[in-house]
């Protein structure tokens, strides 16, 4: 049985976020040691107090330091790699991780990725507006050379910038595409520009060191700017002042509903709006609308979320932070949920201030929601699609100590909800609980396609101190010293050869 414990790691975690450099990898690995408790994974009951504490780690610790020989980035670059990351915050986040890996395998210098001015959020703050640039470059110094822009071409008397050759990578391209086709163009032109760059590198790569590099980027190098971290922390402090809290990513928004083709539950006028949005924004696809929910393709409605939580035993005292954009269909859908769980908050209700309004527009608003959900005691997504907010958070929470997630199996639950709507209510909550018992609450688990590496980086980015298999063993504490020695050696060599 897991002991009930209030999570004390929050302060520590934010401190860790602010510790510079790669040292952070080791520190977080060590300090996370203390937040584990053991539990019996086979217990066939759901205990609330267990859900309020971290899932059972099974002795696994997050670790993304290299475990085999990892030479420093080349002193002689093969050229410059520019990428344009499109999509929202989280699509960009996975794209940035992929870009670092691509630059590494090409022995290229990475130019700080371009982040699309997001068409939905009208946000053009770019990498500098969201992420801590110096921290990013510094944390990855053992992996890739990163510059903020392509330097002037010194050989060229006119001091012109190298013009990057534009290429469109295939979707989920293999590593070999980068080391052949892309590299040839890079050597020919001095620089390449990959656009668009989302889902352009295969997720499953049979090389744990490459996967660990992705974790170093995603979970260590990509740190939001101080004002975003500060605001998130103050929201979390306020929420936790009265005890633990849950966060829910309520993806009941127009774009999602239109994309998923979930129209049935809406009025004819609302359906018209959704269908129009779908026509304008997504490729035509034949969907059987009244089947979408039954096959698990629809986001949970706010009421369904409430029913699941109630069946799990949560009561109306539960504090819930809602990360969401504008909910579609208005209050009609929120009402049943709010009557079950009245203690609802979002980033505007927790903090009212001009400062907040300034800070929560566009990508920064998503970033604040991301941090609050990352640090919450329980996280529940209501929809998961490739490289979106919920999926990245599931991966991040796994890495930060197997923090509890509630992941409803929408396909298995749909018939139960449909029965209930038809008036069959006997045993409703028992049936819900039975389905939920078969789900994962944030323990280490095998990644099964279509689960993404960015949702579940186990086992590549984890290790055990008492491992049965040598491959699972945690790397020695001095790994970073080794990397540093190597780096110093090559830079000294370079200095000597250029001055002599
Ligand atoms: C990158 O450099 C390493 C040596 O550090 C070398 O083994 C590898 O073949 C190079 N790869 C490419 C694509 O240039
Ligand atoms: C929670 O439910 C109890 C009855 O189960 C009720 O007495 C109480 O007023 C409710 N609290 C809120 C905040 O709605
Ligand atoms: C946040 O909560 C407040 C108060 O409950 C509500 O008026 C507002 O619409 C919510 N904002 C969002 C973005 O959901
Ligand atoms: C790393 O150091 C900590 C304490 O300094 C120690 O408890 C731990 O066992 C060490 N880990 C390894 C893999 O040597
Ligand atoms: C640095 O230079 C020395 C002497 O030229 C050489 O022996 C050594 O292998 C070089 N180290 C690296 C990492 O290139
Ligand atoms: C590089 O130069 C420094 C200082 O001149 C010297 O101490 C070091 O040994 C040199 N390294 C190599 C590899 O020659």
Automatic annotation (TrEMBL):
GO terms for cellular component: endosome; membrane; trans-Golgi network. One of its GO terms (biological process) is fucose metabolic process. It is a single-pass type II membrane protein. One of its GO terms (molecular function) is glycosyltransferase activity. It is found in: Membrane. Residues 470-500 are annotated as: Disordered. Residues 490-500 have a biased composition (Low complexity). Pathway: Glycan metabolism. Keywords: Carbohydrate metabolism, Fucose metabolism, Glycoprotein, Glycosyltransferase, Membrane, Signal-anchor, Transferase, Transmembrane, Transmembrane helix. It holds the Pfam family O-FucT. The chain crosses the membrane at residues 12-36. InterPro entries: FucosylTrfase_pln, GDP-Fuc_O-FucTrfase. Belongs to the glycosyltransferase GT106 family. This is O-fucosyltransferase family protein. It comes from Lupinus albus (White lupine).
């Amino acid at each position: 049985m897991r002991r009930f414990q209030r999570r004390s790691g929050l302060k520590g975690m934010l401190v860790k976020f602010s510790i510079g450099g790669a040292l952070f990898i080791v520190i977080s690995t060590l300090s996370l040691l203390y937040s584990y408790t053991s539990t019996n994974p086979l217990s066939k009951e759901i205990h609330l107090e267990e859900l309020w504490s971290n899932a059972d780690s099974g002795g696994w610790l997050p670790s993304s330091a290299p475990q085999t020989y990892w030479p420093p980035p080349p002193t002689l670059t093969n050229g410059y790699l520019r990428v344009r990351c499109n999509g929202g915050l989280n699509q960009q986040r996975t794209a940035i991780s992929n870009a670092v890996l691509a630059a590494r395998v090409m022995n290229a210098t990475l130019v700080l990725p371009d982040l699309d001015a997001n068409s939905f959020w009208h946000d053009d703050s770019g990498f500098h507006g969201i992420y801590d640039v110096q921290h990013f470059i510094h944390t990855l110094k053992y992996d890739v050379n990163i510059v903020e822009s392509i330097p002037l071409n010194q050989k060229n008397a006119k001091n012109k910038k190298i013009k990057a050759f534009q290429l469109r990578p295939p979707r989920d391209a293999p590593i070999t595409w980068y080391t052949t086709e892309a590299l040839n163009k890079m050597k020919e032109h001095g620089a390449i520009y990959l656009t668009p760059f989302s889902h352009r590198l295969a997720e499953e790569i049979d090389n744990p060191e490459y996967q660990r590099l992705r974790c170093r980027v995603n979970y260590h190098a990509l740190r939001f700017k101080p004002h975003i971290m500060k605001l998130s922390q103050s929201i979390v402090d306020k929420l936790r002042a009265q005890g633990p809290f849950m966060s829910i990513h309520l993806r009941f928004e127009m774009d999602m509903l239109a994309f998923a083709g979930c129209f049935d539950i809406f009025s004819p006028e609302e359906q018209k709006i959704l269908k129009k949005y779908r026509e304008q924004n997504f490729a035509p696809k034949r969907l059987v609308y009244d089947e979408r929910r039954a096959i698990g393709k629809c986001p949970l409605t706010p009421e369904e979320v409430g029913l699941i939580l109630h069946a799990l035993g949560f009561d109306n005292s539960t504090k819930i932070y809602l990360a969401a954009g504008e909910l579609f269909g208005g209050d009609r859908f929120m009402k049943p949920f709010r009557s079950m769980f009245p203690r609802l908050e979002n980033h505007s209700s927790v903090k009212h201030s001009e400062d907040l309004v300034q800070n929560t527009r566009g990508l920064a608003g998503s970033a604040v929601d991301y941090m609050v959900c990352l640090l919450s005691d329980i996280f529940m997504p209501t929809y998961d699609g490739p490289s979106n907010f919920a999926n990245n958070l599931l991966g991040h929470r796994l890495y930060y100590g197997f923090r509890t997630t509630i992941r409803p199996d929408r396909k298995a639950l749909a018939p139960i909800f449909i029965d209930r709507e038809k008036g069959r209510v006997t045993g409703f909550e028992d049936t819900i609980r039975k389905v939920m018992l078969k789900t994962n609450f944030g323990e280490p688990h095998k990644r099964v396609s279509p689960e993404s590496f960015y949702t579940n980086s186990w086992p590549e980015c984890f290790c055990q101190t008492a491992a049965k298999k040598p491959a699972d063993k945690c790397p020695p504490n001095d790994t970073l010293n080794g990397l540093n020695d190597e780096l110093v050696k090559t830079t000294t060599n370079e200095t000597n050869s250029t001055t002599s």
